Queue: 2 jobs
Job 1
Amino acid sequence: MTDLPFREIAWKWGAGLVVTEMIASRELAMSRGESWARLKRAGLGPHMVQLAGREPHWMAEAARIAADNGADIIDINMGCPAKKVTGGYSGSALMRDPDLALSLIDATVKAVGVPVTLKMRLGWDENSINAPEIARQAEEAGIQLVTIHGRTRMQFYEGRADWEAIRQVREAVAIPLIANGDVQSERDAQEILIRSGADAVMIGRGAQGRPWHIGTIAGHPAPSRGMQVHIAIEHYEAMLSFYGLEAGLRHARKHLGWYLDRLAPGVSGEAKAAIYRSVEPEDVIRLMVEVLGSASDAPERRAA
């Protein structure tokens, strides 16, 4: 989700900090796949690179590579619940093996001179809520900030995030704490801060189809409807430029779907399918504008 085109828009519209997509540590060290594209900075301000892995050696190697290529902060992913990640004993699967998790944290912290942070869930399941203890040990190992998603791995994204449970981590550490999970509005952001005792809020799915929304929650002016359509088209064109036509079309489909869900929830399945199937950028833009409305009146302004 948070590839460079998305981060540039979120940052431009007022997000306080943006984080790269999860980068597999061994893939980066071996220069495989799109790992280097995910690492790219392009001038955004603190460059926070998120790494995932299960082997301390490869995490340390990847952290060094990231730092040498402009990373200002290294973030360790111990929160991803996806089966393809946890099946490889990475992401939130590490919470089932705290000793391995701590060795991985220790190796990463010692490998670089930039701050290292940690993102995780409350635990693997309701019978193993160990985020407070892992956070405490991570702080002792040199982690400088921790982010908690208020669900266990086994919950995936079902039910509601438990914002009060995040407070147990607040009581366990003195380092900055970021709370995450089900933040869709300014009211949600205020409430999660109160209930969790956190210092800041992370927004993920709440920004799908509206990358400007993080800045809006932070107090920046919301873009007009015309500007929102303009941003959607601008984002689409940026993805094609960043990835190239073939890969760009593939990556863009999910974002186009999110824009349609947010801005035109009543659009027909037929219209959506026509947009997804098209391999001609001009046709996609024409169809998007037809569905969402003209962006020609979009004012040329940006949030600070």
Note: Residues 225-243 form the longest helix (19 residues).
Job 2
Amino acid sequence: MSKVIISCAITGAVHTPTMSPHLPITPDQIAAQAIEAAEAGASVLHLHARDPDNGMPTPDPNVFMQFLPRIKQSTNAIVNITTGGGQGMSIDERLAAPLRASPELCSLNMGSMNFGMYPMLGKYKSFQHPWEAEHLEASRDWIFRNTFKDIEAILERLGKGHGTKFEFECYDTAHLYTLAHFLDRKLVTPPLFVQSIFGILGGTGADSENLLHAKRIADKLFGNEYRWSVMAAGKHQMPFITMGAINGANVRVGLEDSLFAGKGRLATSNAEQVRLIRSIFEPLSLEIATPAEARELLALKGGDNVAF
């Protein structure tokens, strides 16, 4: 087994300010929590942006550029910018920040899917901002869109255009076959960074059988041409990614995926989750990859070749 790459998804576009006082909203908060997560051992920082006034997800590259340079100046971590954005964003909006920043790595969802966040409505009696309940309810009738044409455009504009590589987000095994299709067409280049995602309503459930099945399919399709990573939503986060790492996976933590650091206990920061997973891995003799080691494992272009 190679060393484990820890990715940390700092804020995302799912959780809302009401859900945790520790969710980073402003550029200052996002930068500070990302830097702290890197210091705790995360070698990849997965980043979204939010409107600093109300916490609503935003694709505005000007907001991204308020925290990206600070993170780069303060850490050696790999910056991974979303191309998934958030609910209601067009593909041009979703690509605006990464095209401006030209990062080493971007997330890329490998298909369209239902993406249900509305069950969280029942957990809160009221919300700080009107948009929060509207955002959650709207997901009842929302399809996240990434068609074959959309994926081709992202691969062309970012991959070919900027030398950016991708964290291929696969919410079910069908997405693995879609990725294999693009590999057959030579539109993606190994080593592929495959993120298997579990526990999102509309995607694969967080069952151990599904984790092992995803690995079997990925092994069948990609052989030794991929690096596997696992993430799971909510209460499944820590146990599921631990099981993934024992089976050879890299892992992703962060407040985008779960707001907790134990049953009923909100995580006070992204770094707390990084430290928690390290405290599990190190007694199991699972070594943590440094950013330099992660860059080599993923064959990235290097932090000096970005535009922020």
Note: Residues 238 and 277 are 7 Å apart (CA to CA).
